[in-house]
Amino acid sequence: MNPNNSPEEYPVAPQEVAPEEYYEDVPVLDENGEDPLKRHTKFSWKSFGGDGFIVSIILHAALIIFALFYVVATVRPEPPEPAEFVSGAGGGSNGENANRQKHRMRPKPRDMNTQNKITSKSTRATLTLPEMPKMSSSMGSMGGMKAGGSSGLGGGAGGGIGKGIGPGIGDGRAFLSAFGTSFSKTPTLKGTLFDLKRSRDGKITYCTTAANNAGKRKEELHKALGMLDNSFDVKKLGQRYFEAGTKLNANQVYIYKDFKTKNMIRAEAATAAFAGEDGKPPFDAPGWMVVYTGEITPPETGEYRFVGMGDDAIIVGLDRKTVFYAYWPGEGHGKAVREPANANWEPKDHTKTDGKGSGSGASVQNHLFKGSWMKLQKGKKYKICIAFGEGAGGYAGAILGIEKKGERTEATPPNEPYSLFKLAAIDPDLLNILFVEGRYKAEGPNFMTKQTKRR
Question: What are phi and psi of 314, to 5 degrees?
Answer without folding.
Answer: -140, 140
